[in-house]
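Lab meeting prep.
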Amino acid sequence: MQVESFRTFREFTDGASAIQSRNYKLVESLCRVPDQDRLDSPAYRSTPEVRMRILAGQPTLDEACSAALADDRFGAQDRELLTTAMLGFAGALRRWRQTHYRIAVRMLGTRSGTGSTEGTPYLSSVRKIPVFRSVAEAPEATDTTDTTDHVNEGEAAA
């Protein structure tokens, strides 16, 4: 989609924002319990049903994996398979976050986001949130620094 077409389309979203995406917050919160500051943020306050599930103690994949690895339910080969699967899923989610961020930078440049959000600075910060805590993600996996952070509107339209 061309930048100008996106900007025209964006006028008709009635201020809706990806920050308000119930499905994304559900996936994120089923992976692991969000940190308290994230849970108290506008991102989760805009999805009260998901926030209430978390506060009610919704089980997470991270908790299940941590418990399984801690009490030796699996042999070494199964532990390796579980860890590899968790890291693979975490990598896929991080790539989605990075792609979403890059598209937003291209389409929005330095403009604010929809739904009264700050736009690309917000996306830049949340793409670095660890997906899981029970398996160690490589440091480079959570450092998704990208040179498109500083794209100006003239470059974004190119």
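Slide two material, second protein:
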Amino acid sequence: MERLGLPFAMLSDPAFDLAEALGLPTFEAGGPRLYKRLTMIVRDGVIEHVFHPVFPPDQHAEQVLTWLRENPPAEPAVRGGAGAPPSRRKPGGGTAPAAPMVPA
């Protein structure tokens, strides 16, 4: 990320562990398995939105930027449950840890 100067994290998944765990779309082209083009918006380790299929590709960056502008980050959740997103609430009030994102 630093080398490329990207303002966001990248994910490397050469073993397709994430694809298997989340059922992400892949395909084979001439032998190797590849991810289909998709974009995930991940905040604080939680997948908030997935763009798939990515079409038209030449307009996708603007589509993502529009979504980000229309969906600003929520106030930080208070650890303890009530303010956490429903997907991360645990019975009894705690929050479940987010799946770790491994930078490329």
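Talking points for slide two:
The two ends are 7 Å apart (CA to CA).
The chain has two helices and four strands.
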